[in-house]
Design a protein that fits this description.
This protein is of the alpha/beta class. The chain contains 10 helices and 8 strands. An 8-stranded parallel beta sheet has the order 7-6-5-4-3-2-1-8.
């Protein structure tokens, strides 16, 4: 099946009034993104800043780009002019830098707080209590050019569906608590980004509003190695 065929299958299954499909295009060329674009996809997720910047310059400007990988503070300035959503905010320090670069570009940048929910050492993210501490911090209250619109989490890489379900459920419970405590009157705080190719169905059952699908749409990745800035 072609990229367009794969994409349309997922869009028919996933997309609706409550769930958005983020097509993860990392390590795939602009031509692959363009094929998905012409099939109707407008939201794409990238992990690597340099790759994202190159594609954004080349591709249609109505694409909504999401940064879904770990983001270093010194790379924020490269994506601040155009990024639609940074899904992987895992520290107050990073949030402060995003706010600074957003102000320079006269923008307000939407962000998700990445929460550590997996039973693995390789994932990034804030612990549950760290999310609360961040939102209570006076430095956070002073930020004017970012908007927290929800939470993001990555489940353990396991075939144990109960574990995955429990991890996603924990994130949904945290989301509900954070919404009630900090964003009760903020309609923008509504997103829970969880679920990828292997576990998106479980994620949707547990309340996900965004699922990130990559290889199942674009096929096997050809990994490019980008030089450090």
């Amino acid at each position: 099946m072609s990229i367009a065929d794969n994409l349309l299958k997922y869009k028919a299954e996933i997309e609706g009034p409550t769930v958005k499909l983020v097509a993860v295009s990392k390590y795939h060329g602009a031509d692959a993104v363009l094929e998905a674009y012409h099939a109707g996809q407008r939201v794409f997720g990238e992990n690597i800043v340099q790759e994202l910047v190159e594609k954004q310059a080349e591709l249609p400007k109505d694409i909504e780009w999401h940064l879904i990988g770990h983001l270093q503070t010194n790379k924020v300035k490269y994506i601040a002019p155009f990024i639609s959503l940074i899904e992987s905010v895992d520290s107050l320090k990073l949030l402060i830098e995003i706010d600074k670069q957003a102000a320079k570009n006269k923008r307000i940048i939407d962000c998700l707080l990445q929460v550590y929910i997996a039973d693995e050492d390789t994932k990034f993210g804030l612990a549950f209590d760290e999310v609360v501490d961040l939102l209570r911090d006076e430095q956070f209250s002073a930020l004017k050019n970012i908007r927290i619109v929800g939470l993001m989490g990555i489940a353990s890489n396991t075939k144990m569906e109960k574990q995955i379900k429990d991890e996603f459920n924990e994130l949904k419970v945290l989301f509900d608590g954070i919404k009630a405590s900090f964003f009760r009157k903020d309609e923008a705080f509504k997103e829970i980004s969880m679920g990828m190719s292997a576990d998106y169905k479980i994620a949707i059952e547990q309340g996900s509003t965004m699922v990130r699908i990559g290889s199942s749409i674009f096929g096997k990745r050809v990994i490019k190695h980008f030089k450090a800035d």
